[in-house]
Design brief:
Elements (H helix, E strand, L loop, with lengths): L3 H20 L3 H30 L5 H31 L27 H8 L1
Helix pairs in contact: 1-2, 2-3
């Protein structure tokens, strides 16, 4: 098998994951897209390790060992990430990333009026 096949598949997986990270608004889908990107990297590591072991007769298989470390780190990352997403969902009631930009508790965003200026009463409350 040629090296181009897993490399192209890995590039497609990585681009799909990158699109998911950039376009999705749900935090769980973003985490799944990050996992897809990590799996694309793992596929590249194993493919290049197999290709190099054929040409250089390497017995260490460092690409496959690095893949195992990457899988372990990805498992820890998804566990912690899901715990954070669930805690945020319980507190805020949503997992929409755009609605979670303001992380200060009890802080309401200032809404400008029609001319784009914040009303004077809100300015006074904000400075007090």
């Amino acid at each position: 098998m040629h090296l181009a096949y897993p490399a192209v598949l890995s590039a497609l997986l990585f681009c799909t994951g990158l699109y998911g990270v950039l376009a999705r608004r749900n935090a769980i889908l973003v985490l799944m897209s990050v996992e897809l990107m990590l799996n694309a990297v793992n596929l590249n590591l194993v493919a290049f390790d197999v290709w190099l072991s054929r040409t250089a007769e390497e017995t260490l298989h460092s690409g496959q060992a690095l893949t195992l470390f990457t899988i372990a780190i990805a498992a820890a990352e998804i566990g912690i990430g899901l715990a954070i997403v669930l805690a945020v969902y319980r507190n805020r009631g949503t997992s929409d990333i755009d609605k979670l930009r303001d992380t200060a508790e009890g802080h309401e965003p200032e809404v400008p009026d029609s001319d784009g200026d914040v009303p004077a009463a809100e300015k006074a409350e904000a400075t007090a």
